[in-house]
Amino acid sequence: ETGVTQTPRHLVMGMTNKKSLKCEQHLGHNAMYWYKQSAKKPLELMFVYNFKEQTENNSVPSRFSPECPNSSHLFLHLHTLQPEDSALYLCASSQEGQMNTEAFFGQGTRLTVV
Amino acid sequence: AQKVTQAQTEISVVEKEDVTLDCVYETRDTTYYLFWYKQPPSGELVFLIRRNSFDEQNEISGRYSWNFQKSTSSFNFTITASQVVDSAVYFCALSDPFQGGSEKLVFGKGTKLTVNP
Predict the structure, then answer these.
(1) How far A82 CA sits from the closest chain B CA (Å)?
(2) Which of A4, A2, A16 is nearest to A72 (CA)?
(3) How far apart are CA B26 and CA A10, in angstroms?
(4) Which of A102, A105, A109, A111 to mutate to test the interface with B (most CBs of B within 10 A)?
(5) For B34-45, what is each residue's pLDDT tens digit?
(6) Best of B49, B90, B102, B112 to mutate (most A CBs within 10 Å, chain A)
């Protein structure tokens, strides 16, 4: 079982749909992240949760709504998205407070908005 | 603001060639970390290396080596005797570990490496 698991791997949704992306980490980390990877653009940090509290919202539109019920699970709720929101959404986790750590990434959810 | 530049968008080499991926960064911080990640076609980012700003010693791990030059703000990555399995997108990233305690990574746009048989 991989350290960070994302479901679904692929998602196609209409602009009026509501869907959720799920991320689960089995590494005992206490910080989790959502990144967006669009074609020909750098990975963009969207949200950071540290000890289940949101510590960063990187100017993300309100049509993206994160939820972190515990330190092992992270959700990204989607509603009324736009075609330009189509991208690979990557979840990551790390152990905060420890300088010698790196972020572990899931395989991502490939989202297509039609 | 922090910034990472990977000037090479795509590189194509033949197997067994050596290849160097360039990374130049900008930061006003004196303490920071630099990373390289590999993204194979399956999508996940695989951690390769982390280097802190106080350690300029070059590192070698098998066929991989990294050259950190603080004077030129560069952190280049060399693959020796490349293999087809090295084909992936490689990302250089910069992290400031002191802002709110969260490890926020600023990524370059990535370099797509294709190793042909």
Answers:
(1) 23
(2) A4
(3) 35
(4) A102
(5) 999 999 988 889
(6) B102
The shortest CB-CB distance from B103 to any of A43, A101, A106 is to A101
Q: List CB contacts of A7: < 8 A, sequence separation 6 or more.
A: A21, A22, A109
Q: A58 to chain B, minimum CA–CA distance in Å? A: 11
Sheet strands (E) in A26-86: 31-37, 44-50, 53-57, 64-70, 73-79
Residue B55: per-residue pLDDT = 84
The predicted model gives A2-30 an average pLDDT of 93
Chain A: give the shortest CA distance to residue B22, in Å. Answer: 15
Q: In which residue are the tokens 């209409």 written?
A: A14
Tell me which DSSP letter residue B38 carries: E
Question: What residues are paired with B19 via a beta bridge?
Answer: B79
Residue B87 pLDDT: 97
d(CA B104, CA A8): 25
- What are the φ and ψ backbone dihedral angles of A83, each rounded to 5 degrees? -55, -30
A103 vs B4, B105, B106: nearest CB: B105
DSSP β-ladder status, A109-113 and A87-94: antiparallel
Choose among B9, B97, B63: nearest CA to A41: B9
Would you give the end-to-end CA distance of chain B in angstroms?
A: 41
Q: Phi first, then psi: what are they for B84, rounded to 5°?
A: -55, -35
Q: Are the beta carbons of A105 and B45 separated by less than 8 Å?
A: yes
